[in-house]
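Note to self: keep these together.
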Amino acid sequence: MEHKCFSIVKAFEYSFDSLIHHFAIFVKLIFLIGIPLILLNEIDKNYIMPRMRIAWHSIKNHVIAQDVLKKIEAKATMPSSPEGERFRNFVINTLGLIHGPTSHVPWYPEELAHPTINQVITVVDKPAPEKKALYEVAQKHQAEEIGLGVFVALLLSLLSLALYTVFIIFSTRLTLDFHDFHTIRVDYAVQSVKRLFWLVLGTLLVYKIIVSLGILLFIIPGIFLALRYFFASTLVIDEKATSISHAFGMSALCTDGAKWKLFFFMVCLGAMNVFSLKLPWLHLLIAPISALAYIYVYKKLLSQAAEVPSHGKA
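Structure:
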């Protein structure tokens, strides 16, 4: 394994030197990267994430409801007995789990749109033929609600990823220009968004899926894969990679032998950005500094990878 190296300290020194020696351009970066990032975070926090939480909470509720309905159906002919009483208590307690400050129980038929405990007990105690009709309606509503919840959650996830993709292409292109030419080309960044949107979106989506699957395998594989393919989307935006597979292969080559340093660099970037989110005015400054440090590390590892013969690693 060819070990590559970069200095985390030098990456941030480069950012601060850029602030001092190219102050006018750096101020433009503050407005073109910092302000959109703050707006994107606000949209995500106040509009997209709350609705995603409601959608996933709704799905969870209906999954619980499905279990309750099956258990009620299984006990449809249960006579009044200590066992029947225990089951009624189970139903009441389970309904307590899915009742929230906003809610009725949407998977019940219209006549039970706002069930009270007494109504629930009444339904549990209804004769079997009446119960069967109620179950059929309730299960149909419940299945529709689960499908709608999944659709809304996925739609909101894709919307969030699309907004993030536009910002990533625009801000990365500006930062690459600053690093390479000590200038920024807003028109070229906008063209890059139009040309590369679908390719970068696909790259980010594949990256998220791969890392998520890795995290499911006891977390450490997820961290390894996140580091291995850390630069995949940047390679596409920098037009060094022409396809998703090419981007992932090149990223693996760039990060080979540098994963530990890259991990600590990611921790530093994450800590800086999380801390600065509490103070929007500070985030305006930290966002371009972090972006420039990231591009410094990317360019350093890319240049070192170019010196290493490729063996088709991916």
